[in-house]
Amino acid sequence: MDDLKIIELYFARDEEALHKSEEKYGKYCKAIAKNILSSDEDAEEIFNDTLLGAWNSIPPEEPRSLKVYLGTLARNISFDRYRKMTAEKRGGCEVSLCIEEAEEFLADTVSVADEYEKREFSKFLNGFLHSLPGRECDIFVRRYFYCDSTADIAKRFALKESNVLVILSRTRKKLKNELKKGGYTL
Amino acid sequence: MKTNDFFEAMNDIDASLIERADNEVSVKKRRPMLKIAAIAASFILLIAGLAAVLPSLIGDGGEHTPGDAIVWDNVFDLFVPSKDSGFKIYEVTGLAEYSFSEIVSKKYEKYEIGNAFPLEKNDEFIGEKLDDIEARNGWRWNIDGKERDVVTVKAELYEIKGVSPDAAVAVKYLEKGGSQTTEHFYAAVNTEYECTTLSDIFDDLNAAVHMEISKEALAREYAFGSNVGGIEKYRMNDGVPADICKLILGLDADAEPVGRYEGVDAKIHGCENMLRFTFAMNSAGRMINMLYVFDNGYIAIQGIGEGYTLFNVGVENTDAVFEMLKDGSKLVTVIPTDPDGDGLVEETTTVVNEAANE
């Protein structure tokens, strides 16, 4: 069933929408959740919450890409769960490594406190990603959106893990420079 | 900015980027490996000559354990020179001779002898004597398997504390042969033993210092060098801690471990020539996977596991190596290019001084 039809089911408040969503994007969303939380059980729960989130938000939302919409929801809910779980203690899963890497290039940057600044920063980040060569961008997105391990990224792109590390390192360096140019550093 | 802000912003990136990154990718083929060339007899002299220089660089000249399998790799894992830098690589590939030891006593013939336990660990790990055996020791060339100075020596087998002798034992030689000492205990692992249980064997031995390396792989490394499949798991780790390099190489220099490549560009920046040594031995006759010599005083050793350790040995030493190799070996330049600007480098190899070797 194509996405439009599934979205129509959401609009019609037909619970079949949930079954079809699970059928089509369950694996995808659970993989994102598992990358962040390192647990099949949590990933399962996150996916249930994702479906609930979709059920409650469509309508009025009418996503252009159901896949990205559900994936983003799953990622958001997983991050919330991660923050709660690690309020006291961090470590152990892939996302903690991603966060450590981000901390490195975000050091000395200004805060983006209000909604306006956050939106502007999102635009800035989009601009930066679009400026990257295709594969560099994809690798960055795999790492910091999907929170894939570098080993998984290497496998996906048929690269050596060392190449992935180099590419990510260079991209972070580029981003750091762009943050500086964009006035995001202190 | 908080990391949360970054990860939240990542949530708002264009859907097209998220989708594209999730598409199946068709990948271009990585650069072809250079074929390891057959080597002229004169190259053997070169190796011998290099061994005379290397002691001051990477070893103590002491005796050592059998060599490792060769892993081909590329310096561009370390860094990518800019297109306009004029950076040249002198490619040196060849053969090497390593010391071997094989148990000939039938009961233990499936046991493969590997690395030595550090002497200071003997009391901690070596248990009761189990048996008397004989071993066949000597030197062997890696390509054609030709052997020399082969002797049969008497040896004793000991229990490794907490390890079933069905899985692994320790060998102590009573007579000299090959490069094995009569002081050390060498791990010997039963190649027919169920591998998955090996992960527990060296727990105590390794846990304290080698946290990053899977224990099973390290156990195998102790036992086999990189001769068996376990090394594949080892290689999945990022880099090799300095103490592993020291362990492998018998090295006790000021090492700068380069596991994640950060900072390597800066160290190597400014060098114009690099010598890439595929089959290299340290002063103790132990093979190491790759040796890179930069003309600014640095050498990088790629140990097992795709990690690098960078050593500052001084320009006078690296100059000496360059001088010697330029005089007596076949050199080629490898011109790195990055046509797609994506950080993956293609190599164009040109032999520049073939005539000098004929």
Question: What would you say this structure looks like, in words?
Answer:
Chain A is mainly α and 186 residues long. Chain A has nine helices and no strands. In chain A, helix 2 crosses helix 4 and helix 8 crosses helix 9. The longest helix of chain A is centred in the first third of the chain and has 22 residues. Chain A is globular, with a radius of gyration of 18 Å. The termini of chain A are far apart. The model of chain A has no long low-confidence stretch (mean pLDDT 83). Chain B has 358 residues and is of the alpha+beta class. In chain B, the strands form four sheets. Chain B has a six-stranded mixed β-sheet with strand order 1-9-12-13-14-8. A six-stranded antiparallel β-sheet of chain B has the order 2-4-5-6-7-3. Chain B has a two-stranded antiparallel ribbon with strand order 10-11. Classes of the chains: A mainly alpha (186), B alpha+beta (358). Chains A and B meet through helix 4, helix 5, helix 6, helix 7 and helix 8 of A and helix 1 and helix 2 of B.
Spell out the key features of this protein:
heterodimer; A: 186 residues; mainly alpha; 9 helices; globular; B: 358 residues; alpha+beta; 6-stranded mixed β-sheet; 11 helices; 28% strand; disordered C terminus
